[in-house]
Specification:
heterodimer; A: 66 residues; mainly beta; 11% helix; B: 272 residues; alpha/beta; five-stranded parallel sheet; three-stranded parallel sheet; 9 helices; 10 strands; 37% helix
């Protein structure tokens, strides 16, 4: 079990790129950033970085704000 | 002073610089609170802003329309914020995520003390600013209207300081104009009045006090007619800037006639 944006998912072992694809986001998408367990995962590593059991993924994009 | 209404700024004004980037518009727009992206785009055009703030939030697969596409079409530069961060650590990670997402090392640094006031947490803010400057960021901190804190932020290498007029979204205007003046008097980096603007006159006052620019979101986004308010606040920023350059007259307690006494007609009737 891992967590993607707070939602539990049975996707341990998937790469960051695969998890983004689950959300309908392509690896080339602009304005997207990812953190795993509070650490930034640079875009260049999305294809290799596997998300391990229990890790928390935050997949973020541009939002209107102050 | 001649002013061409088609010009972005009064013809006699000069651009200003933040972190080596030249800006002609002295109004920075916050993109928060606009109900429709079309309204946001119209407001950007009305403010003639060159720089707009943006936030990072969890991807919403249901989101309609692309904010970044709209902002690209408007030709504005992005200033990512760290809104919602309560600790230096969260703010630093958020700034790094924004750098990844938007390809900019500029950041509007917000580190908030509590939900009720949204006032900056000074020690955490200073800590985050120092760390981000060391990491190569161009840091524009949202700060209290505290001249000493503003100086400390400048000392650690912030590219500008952005004191609040009053709490975010309160529309209470500039509660302590004396502190804003003290910050302006001392600062060697641009001072941008951030938060508290409720209507055009608040933005004019900020500029009259000597601020280099105004950052405004809610006053425009939540106005009954956002685009009209965008025009009004843009005009107010220009008016305040011109007035600051022109120099206000000193305040005095008693009246001083603007019509001379000399040559005043003697209209007394003859004594019987």
């Amino acid at each position: 079990m891992i967590f993607v944006n707070g939602e539990p998912r049975e996707r341990a072992g998937a790469t960051v790129a695969e998890l983004l694809a689950d959300l309908g986001i392509e690896a080339s998408a602009r304005g997207v950033a990812v953190a795993v367990d509070g650490e930034v995962v640079p875009r260049a590593e999305w294809g290799e970085r596997r998300v391990n059991e229990g890790e928390r993924v935050e997949a973020l994009s541009a939002m209107q704000g102050g | 002073m001649a002013m061409d209404t088609e010009q972005q700024i009064p013809v006699t004004d000069t651009p200003f610089e933040i972190g080596g980037r030249t800006l002609r518009s002295r109004l920075i727009l916050g993109t928060g609170g606009f109900k429709r992206l079309e309204t946001l785009a119209e407001a950007i055009r009305a403010t003639r802003a060159e720089l707009v703030t943006i936030a990072l939030r969890r991807i919403d697969p249901q989101a309609r329309g692309s904010l970044t596409d709209v902002l690209d079409e408007c030709g504005v530069e992005l200033l990512p914020n760290t809104a919602g961060c309560f600790t230096a650590r969260d703010a630093v990670v958020t700034a790094k995520l924004a750098r990844e997402a938007f390809g900019t090392d500029w950041v509007k640094l917000e580190v908030i003390g509590d939900d009720r006031t949204l006032l900056p947490d000074a020690p955490e803010l200073l800590l985050a600013a120092e760390e981000l400057v060391a990491d190569g960021f161009t840091v524009l901190p949202y700060t209290n209207d505290d001249p000493i804190l503003a100086r400390r932020l400048e000392d650690v290498g912030c590219a500008a300081v952005m004191p609040l007029g009053s709490p975010i979204g309160s529309g209470m205007g500039i509660r302590n104009p004396y502190n804003i003046s003290l910050i302006v008097e001392r600062a060697n980096v641009p001072v941008i009045l951030d938060a508290g603007v409720g209507t055009a006159s608040d933005a004019a006052l900020a500029m009259e006090l000597g601020c280099d620019a105004v950052l405004c979101a809610s006053a425009i986004a939540r106005a009954h007619e956002p685009v009209a308010m965008a025009h009004a606040i843009r005009a107010a920023v220009e008016a305040g800037r011109l007035a600051r350059g022109a120099g206000r007259i000193p305040r005095r307690l008693h009246a001083q006639a603007s019509t001379p006494d000399e040559g005043l007609a003697d209209l007394t009737p003859p004594v019987e």
